[in-house]
Hints:
This protein has 238 residues and is an all-beta fold.
Amino acid sequence: MQSLGHSRSAHRDNHILHTPDAFVRAPWPGMKNATAIIHATPTIGAKFTQYTAEFEAGGHLPASHLQRFVYVISGEINTANATLGPGAYAYFGEGQSSQLDSPSGARAVVIEKPYQPLSGTPPPSHFSGYENTITPQPLMGDPDLEVRSLIPSDPSFDFAVNTMTFRPGATLPMVEVHVMEHGLIFLEGGGIYRLGDFWYPVTVGDFIYMAPYCPQWFGALGKTPAKYLIYKDWNRAA
Ligand code: UGY
Ligand code: MN
């Protein structure tokens, strides 16, 4: 249907809402039989890059010189060490073989970031895993809001990636205002996201960038859980 110039997407001082109706696909350097929806890069002030990679059969994404984290939404992806299906993820440090290949097509979230060393701590090594093997933790004691940490709790990592699952009606317990920035993609359900002084209806496939100190709150609406994958810088002072 004709949108008559309307979109839920928004670009404001301290946040971006990027909705599927506004996605523009572009090749990421070196991609073959694949394309990227680039959601956040340093061009918007982010200290990381996040994109959705869409692989056709035989799709290829070359290795990155940066740290790379990949989370598979659908299909299968081969890394140098493992085959990742839906809900699987992998981390690659700088200089590690982070190329991704998909024999029969896939869709995945990709996050890349220059590594910020921590004096006296060696950089982290490659790992992969399945989200459904992670024990969920209730956020601030709320059993209706489950957090799964996909990156180990280890100071060598300079970022965190979590999934957060809200039962219908569950909300963040407070309006958060913090120094960390976020890249967030909705995997299931939806609700209302407060960003700065705006309240947005959000749903599956939407991406949100939150700059440091962007006031943020979410409430899940509907009869099914809402779930998102969220990146934040972590374990570093600046
Ligand atoms: O980890 C977080 O900061 C998370 N609770 N933020 C959010 O969901 N917007
Ligand atoms: Mn937050």
